[in-house]
Amino acid sequence: MTDDRTVRMRVEIDAVDRVAELESLRDWLAEVDQLRGLVRSVESPPPSHVLGPVVDSLEVVVGPVATAVAASVVAWVRSRSGRVTVRLERPDGTKLTIDAARVRGLSPADVHAEVDRVLKAIEGPGEQPE
């Protein structure tokens, strides 16, 4: 499911238990029908005291499913109870940060605006949703 609008975004998380939060977000996104098969863990070599690779970030294929990605990431961030920050980065270097403390208590109208803000960052300059 790729086309000329396909973009692979990097997703990083700042949290007390970063790896557990990355795995939680990966699992959350995998439950979204439109995103199944479009999310993968990116691993880095382990530090000397750890056995096996460590999940470093996620890679999400977006394009025709950009709205589903934006809405799902915002919903996941809002569900977090601790200090969690998600950073999305496009291949062109465009970055966006979503902080759980900021979005947790948003009104429905503000949640919609946040999803729009994330969607615009995902789509990048000059790209329009269908």
UniProtKB/TrEMBL annotation:
This is YbaB/EbfC DNA-binding family protein. Pfam families: EACC1.
